[in-house]
Amino acid sequence: MPIKAMGWAHSFPASGGVRAGRRWTRRQLESLSWTAAEPETVDAVVLAVSELLTNAHVHAHSDAHLILTWDGDCLHVSVHDDDPTLPRQRNPQAGETSGRGVGIVRMLADELQMTCQRHGKTVSACFRPVGTDRPSGG
């Protein structure tokens, strides 16, 4: 059986790109058949995109390059920025306005992966919708 995937890519500038990234992501997801029946998964993806773009802008001081890929099993959300330093999960104190992004994405996603590259890093999260057709074992 041939592998069929769909994908979209867009760059968001460090100045004001987070809101645009959320809107762009929601628009792309509308073309996938499962999203109408799974608004919670769509909201989780949009929130993860928001956190990952914010991290790229605030901590890496970089434009963020967002790639969404649907492979029939997992919606891959990947954000690349120019800083090779991997994000670390922190335990912020009550009242701190920063430090929760990695933890939020880790909680929302089915998988989270961080990769250093020669020119920056990529943080990728996988979201598996509940209602997608899965091959039956047996």
Automatic annotation (TrEMBL):
<dbReference type="InterPro" id="IPR003594">
    <property type="entry name" value="HATPase_dom"/>
</dbReference>
<dbReference type="Pfam" id="PF13581">
    <property type="entry name" value="HATPase_c_2"/>
</dbReference>
<keyword id="KW-0418">Kinase</keyword>
<keyword id="KW-0808">Transferase</keyword>
<dbReference type="InterPro" id="IPR050267">
    <property type="entry name" value="Anti-sigma-factor_SerPK"/>
</dbReference>
<protein>
    <recommendedName>
        <fullName>Histidine kinase/HSP90-like ATPase domain-containing protein</fullName>
    </recommendedName>
</protein>
<keyword id="KW-0723">Serine/threonine-protein kinase</keyword>
<dbReference type="InterPro" id="IPR036890">
    <property type="entry name" value="HATPase_C_sf"/>
</dbReference>
<dbReference type="GO" id="GO:0004674">
    <property type="term" value="F:protein serine/threonine kinase activity"/>
</dbReference>
<feature type="domain" description="Histidine kinase/HSP90-like ATPase">
    <location>
        <begin position="27"/>
        <end position="126"/>
    </location>
</feature>
